[in-house]
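In this supplementary section we document a worked example of the pipeline. Step one takes a protein sequence of length 464 as its only input; no multiple sequence alignment statistics are reported here. Step two produces a three-dimensional model, which step three serialises into C-alpha cells for compact storage. The input and output of this example are shown verbatim.
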Amino acid sequence: MLKVRCVSVSEAPLVIPVRGGDIPAPWRAAAAADGFTGKPETWCEVFDCGRRIVLVGLGDPLHAGALAASRLLRSPRMAIDATHLTPKEAAALSAGACLRSWHPVNFRAHPDDNDPRLAELDLVSDDSATERAWLKVAAGVEACLFARDLVTEPSNTLSPAGFVARLDRLVKAGVTLEVKHVPELQAGRFGGLLAVGQGSIHPACLAILRWPGSHPVPPVAFVGKGITFDTGGICIKPADRMWEMRADMAGAAAAAGALLALALRRSPAPAFAVLALAENTTGANSYRPGDVLAMHNGATVQVVDTDAEGRLVLADALAFAVREKPQAVVDLATLTGSIVVALGHEMAGCFDNDPALAAAAASAGAVTGENIWRMPIGAQHRDALDSAVADLKHCVDGRGQPDACQAAAFLKEFVGETPWLHIDIAGVESREAATCLHAKGATGFGVRLLDQLVADRFEDPHRV
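The serialised model returned by step three reads:
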C-alpha cells in the first residue's frame, strides 16, 4: 500500500481536484487547449515550472483518486491538494489512489528493481481532521490489499495450510486464530468440507478468527469459501481458463480481510470469521456424484455435481457459525457462473433472509464502490433440491438452471433464523483488465463493504 503522509507542503507531482468545472486560473488556458472542462472522471496534465500537475474532475472522490493515481503510476511519489476538500473527500481520494496503485506480487526470477512504481502519497492539508478521516478508512484499504495478495498467490504455495500461515498477519493485529484439522472435522461431522477436500494431498481445515471488540454484545460473523484450487473434482472442469481457479478462495480472503480491517482500526464491534479451506481435486479418494454426506447441522445431503463444491463447504461453515448465536452472519463466495450471467462484472449478487440487513449492506456497498444487487430465493428454488435418498440435494442436474438462486436456497437451510446475507462474488473478485479503480487482477471485493457494514450497523451497542 502507498505510504500516506498528511503534510502542509509537498514537492511531488501534484493532483488538483476540480469541482464543478472550476479550473484554477493558472491552468485554465492549458486545460482549455487540451479540451479539459473538469467533467467528473476526466483528467488533464499540465506543467508548472517543470512540475507535473494532474487536474482531475471531482465526481466520486474514490474514482477521482484512482484516476489520478493511474496517471502517475511510474512516479515514485504523488501529492493530492486537499486544501479545498472536506476531510471525507480527501480520505476517499487517498483511498482510491491506494487501491489503484496496487500491483500483483512479482514472481519473476529476475524482477526489474529499477522499474519505478508509485510508493508514496502526500495528502496536502493543514486541517487535522483530514488526517483523522484518512486513518478511519486506511484500515479497510490495507485489509483489501491483503485480500488481493492472497487471491493472487498461486495454489502451489497457497494450499489450505499455506492460507492458514498467511493469517499470521491478523494474529499480529490482535486477532485470535483457531484451526480445526481433519480429526476434529470428522468428530464434528463436517461432512461437506471433508468430502470436498478428501481427494487432495492437502488436507482441508476450518480456520476460525476472532476479534473481541469492546462492546458486550453478540458478534457478527463472516463466513468465506476458501477453495484454494478447484478442478471440479470428478465432474472436472474444461482445461480452458482452469488456471483462474486459484482464485476460488476469494470469499475466504475477503472474510479474513474484513476481520483484519476491524482489528487495524480497533473496532468496538466483536466479530469472528469462519474460513472453510480445501482443495477440490481429483484422486483415488475423491468424493463422487451420488454420495450422501452427513453435514455439521445433522442434515444429509446428496451430491449431484462435484463442481458445486463451494456450497458444501459453506454449509458446514455456516452451521458452525450460527451455533455461536451471532447478531448476523454474512458469507462471501465465488459460487456460481449464473450470477455472472445475471449481473456481469459490475456488481455481486446478494441473497438474504433479512431485508433490513440486505439494505444496510447495499448502502455500505454504495459508499465503498463494492455494489451488490438483491436477488430472490423462491419456494421453487428450494423445492428443486428435494432428494429421494437424503434431506436435500446440493444442486440440480442440468444446464440452464437458476443455479445462483438454488445455491442460496441450499445455504439458507443451514442458517435457521439467524439474520443472514449471502454475497456471490463470482465475476467481481478479479478483473481481466485495469479499470478506473482496479489494476488488472484481484479486487479484494467485499473487504471494504463488510468493514463499512460493521461501522454502520454493528458498532452502536444500543442497536442490539
